[in-house]
Amino acid sequence: MTAPALTFVKLWVFVADDGLTEVKVLSVMTGIIAGMKHLVLQVLFILLLLVTSTTKADVAGPTANELASVYPDAENAGPYQGTPPAAEVSFAGATVGYVFSTASVINSTGYAGETIDVLVGVSADGIIQGAMLRKHSEPILVIGVSDDDLTSFVDGLAGTNVLISAVERARRNPENADAISGATVSSAVIRDAVIRGARTVLRARNTSAGEARLERLTYEAKSWPKLINDGEVASKQFRFADIPGELGYDAAPDDSFITLYAALLTPPLIGGNLLGTREHEALLASLGSGDHAILIAANGFYSFKGRNYRKSGVFDRIQIIQGAHTIPLHAASYRNLERLKAVDAPELREIGIFVLGADTGFDATSPWRVDLFIDSMSGTGTGPTYTVSLPYALPSSYVIKPVLSAGADTENPTGQPLWQQIWHNRRSDIVGVGLLLTLLTVVLVFQDKLVRYRQFRDAGRLAFLAFVLVWLGWYAGGQLSVLQVLTFAHALLQGFEWEHFLVDPVIFMLWGFVAVTLLFWGRGVYCGWLCPFGAMQELLNACARRLGVPQLQVPFAVHERLWAIKYVIFIGLFAVSLHTLREAMVLSEVEPFKTAISLSFIRNWPFVLYAAFLLLAGLFIERFFCRYLCPLGAALAIPARLRMFNWLRRRHQCGRECQICSERCTVQAIHPTGEINPNECIYCLECQTYYMDDHICPPLVAARKKRERRLALAAGEVVNREADYG
Amino acid sequence: MVDPQPISRRRAITIIASCCAFPATAIAGKERTLEWKGTALGADARIVFESRDRAKTDAMLATVRDEIERLEEIFSLYRPYSSLATLNRDGHLHRAPLELIALTRRALWYTEITHGAFDISVQALWDLYVGHFSRHPTDLLGPAGADVAATCAFVGPDHIRLNNSSICLDPGSKLTFNGIAQGYITDRVADLLRQLGWRNVLIQLGETRAIGGHPNGGPWKIGLPGEARTALFNGALATSSADGSRFVTNGPHHHLFHPASGRSATARPPVTVTASRATDADALSTALFILPDSEHANVLAKVPGAHIVPNGTQS
User: Does A256 lie in the same domain as A361?
Assistant: First the structure.
């Protein structure tokens, strides 16, 4: 307690829905300081910072039913324990895999900073056996995704190999759905949690998943030239010209001194082809665990075996080098081979199979080389010696690389965090939203100029709204929701992390734009220009008017009172969200956004009926939903009072001598007394076109008529004068 | 003596604008001349090469570092479990590395052609002198004659027996490869790089070996003790000097012992030898420093392509 005066601690006791009493502690001061960074939106919630909750992930061990669904092959599961906690799953007495909860292993959290819990079964070799979503409070998961989609997506994770990279996974299994359409972010969050959790569990349990492993399953017949060509057999020819003259060899420089061949025999595809499958299986059977066999063969003048090994038991002309490590070759681990079985293999002068025991430290997946020592011609051993090397690198298809090394926790091979990958993948959407917002900014900055061209404004606005509805709403998923406001409030209270908000770049950009325009122009810029559902209502209403559907003018006194409904809805949602975000999420279905925009009306009929009702009402009362019900609009309207500029022009005659604007305002946001209500205004600029129109705005009309009269008078005078002189 | 403590090999590759005598003629887009610095057997190591491929360069330098590390594990006197240290401590080494066997054989041949002037078994004398001067740091006379004579009994090729996989030493005898191993490591790394396809590389791992010439054209110009320089193209060069390791500053005793007398060889200017391989240049420069000038021609005649570089050569 270093600064008790600064730290106002408030204790709040809630009884949560699961019956557990949670003690919710808040340091208002810390909250405010943290919130300073996000000042603009925080203004929204500064009053509500009084309450917070620290939710502990309460994750129980897997029940028998859960176990059966996430690890169908499991015979038995041990207790849920260890760090990170996981239940060992056994089959026939041996541990075959683990069951864990992503919440307890990697504390998987999402958008709202609240727990996502997926129960996962993973085998020791990194294959997901099954997964089930146990708990989530993710608005981003709810918007745009039906529960069935979500369940089938999570079920579909079974069979995923968590140890290979995303790229490799896609290569091996291109049909596997990577995401639920319309909810790519949600899918990515879940997938990331499952894979990262599985890797964490496997790494901590020191399974073989931590090291690069050798692919030892595949076999296909392969000819010698192809084995050489694909690098499974390394070869190199040394001519006499390559051997230093001091060694005293005297022959035509282009003659072959020695052609060396080397290969790793352990993988069936290589060993089976070179030795014949039966021979290869016999060889493998003779190897201990961790042992490997290599083949060294040669043609030409020089012998790599020499003669001394028979007596001394040591090959004194060849050795294997791996990194800084020397592996000598001994006669005891050597077997002569007369000929190779691979198709089209040449007759070779010398072929040897060498077993490299696990104790030699030989790593089959790393590159190695054969060093051949060449004595002088004299053979006395006292002359200069020369060494030639044949490098061998196992083709990468034989190496199963772990993606477990540090920094490789994310799906992307480059180790980018999830949100950066998403931004990268959606860069065309980001550019589109950027252009859209730039265009809108230009419109707002030059509004006084633009509103002079009435036809242009009308047509341009309809085109803009159509684009917002079709591209931003239906295509790019750019529909804001009151849930994001609630989520943001929760995040501020529970530890704000940019990353949670960055996972959807379109939503993030829109909110950033809203934050700025809220201060400059008020809430209307979003509601009137960028909300896809708002655009849908306005476009439908425009059609209705064209078809002659009568518009209802709500008496202002009634209208004014109906405004209040949306604020009540918003406050209600906020209050519920403080209790549980999940309930608020259900209640937020009062917004038809998910039905109409995210799911394009492909949803259960009650939801569609509700959305259709709102749109129908909107045919008679323009933006019926916006005016009276929209909790997002209410949330934006509250801080809209703080806007710093008032760029909507009025005259002193407005409301006193003239009611044209207030009667024609499409959302009746202009009081009969003349002032524009910034809480209700959608900034459509309709009133501004009247303001500039000298055929509509009475003071302008009067001025114009006066001017015309004067001109007519002047013209008349001229005529008269001409007449006089005529 | 060489400081045995390990020196970090993580040295940056520095782009050198010019290499000694060569003015920089780096043209944009052309290959860049790069220099790697590290250590090998305790001495400063350096490789100059040209490359524009970062991945290829990194792979090559990793190979170089691994190879130096691997050979130090065999030839270092200061690593307690190197093959050589094990041999000196136990007096025998079975299944000795091929490099140790090959280089011992070659060293014994040099002992033969230099009539004993080059000898890898002088390590016992080194131990005697180090022990003496650690007790008497300013003594100019050196160890007592009786002690030297007694130690000389452990020196000589007859105390070494080897076959194709084992080496045995007589009790009291110890080997040092400091007169030849640096040249050998230089050769091994050079041969490796050449087989990997590198051309125009200067390798200085204790001794000097050139693959081709300078990337800018012409031979490499190698600085000699003093002001002199000599040209080197596709060959090796080694210098032996008493100044390298005197036991007492300006004293008469240094590391180049005359194996027969057990005393440091008579003071003389440094001796530089060129040969096609650094192993030979290294051994020859050591031997010729100890041998009187009159013997030099005889010895050089037995190694084709080897020459002594006259002091004061300018090229």
Answer: yes
